[in-house]
Amino acid sequence: MEGLVTLLEANRPTVQSADGQTYLCYLKGRIKRDVGRIMVGDRVQFEPTDEGEARIDAVLPRANQLLRPPVANVSGLLVVYSLAEPQGSLELLDKRLVMAHLTGLEAEIIISKTDVAPDPSALRDLVERYREIGYRVWLVSSPQRWGITEMLEYPRTGIWVLTGESGVGKSTLLKALLPDALASTQALSRGGRGQQTTRWVRLYRMPAGYWLADSPGYTALETAVAEPSRILAAFDDLTGWECRFSDCLHGLEPGCGVVEAVQRGHVAEWRWRHYRKLVSEWVKKSY
After folding, report:
1. What CATH fold (topology level) applies to the domain 2-61?
2. pLDDT at 180
3. CA pair distance 204, 16, nearest whole angstrom
4. pLDDT given for residue 275 in this prediction
5. pLDDT tens-digit profile of 122-167?
6. Which of 26, 104, 217, 252 could form a cystine bridge with 166, CB 3.0-4.6 A?
7. What angle do CA 205, 206, 211 make, to 5 degrees?
């Protein structure tokens, strides 16, 4: 039989078959040697043994994989960001969007807690910036259920990872999307940052047909390090500007069209700063 790993808890994979049956599985000894580790999102071949349990005989080739959170065969990211309670990090938002580009994934932005956004004009400017770049941006409020239905019913395929910093409302959003999902929401810490509310990566079947992966609120997603030119390609708003040098990395090079565009307000200064920081991090890692 063939199925999908929907949960990996205490090294025991839960697999769902095409007919919706779930099995708590164990691995054949050679699987660990050949694959290294099994991941949520893996397509596997398995054989039922006792009632409700099964043995995984093979892991099918992966289209891709994320390192943090560990998910295989991902189609896209739903990146959650909040403007308040707590204030999210635009730098980490951009880092996740770049990671999606480098991994060949689609990406959409969810701005949560819009009912408590302190500055409506700042929210409007942020949405306009990202939509101009080409991202689909959803505005939601889980308690009020604003925007939930539209986002829920939007057609997607494959596995989508719901990701974002701790406390930005991922678990609350998941419960609004799937009221019966077993995702607990904890109170924010006194310091204003979110507490860890999700312990394992878990896949949920969405009514529109795709799978949604809820993941712990790591401060960063990781993937293979890319060269600076590939990082630049992930920033559509920094491309297409005329520079003096063809290999310009848009730092402080003379005659840089991007720097001039930033100075004139055509490119958001914080987007340029985030790009420069990612390039700097790559240079440090490459030596």
Report:
1. OB fold (Dihydrolipoamide Acetyltransferase, E2P) (2.40.50)
2. 66
3. 11
4. 92
5. 889 999 999 999 999 999 987 788 888 888 889 999 999 988 887 7
6. 217
7. 55
Structural contact between residues 38 and 44, judged by C-beta atoms closer than 8 angstroms: yes
pTM of the model: 0.84
pLDDT tens track for 180-237: 654 443 343 334 444 444 457 889 998 889 999 876 655 344 554 557 788 888 999 9
For every residue of 218-277, which 3-state class applies, written as one string? CCCCECCCCCHHHHHHCCHHHCCCCCCCCCCCCCCCCCCHHHHHHHCCCCCHHHHHHHHH
Strands (E), 62-135: 65-66, 71-72, 74-82, 106-112
Please state, in angstroms and rounded to a whole number, the distance separating the CA atoms of residues 218 and 165.
6
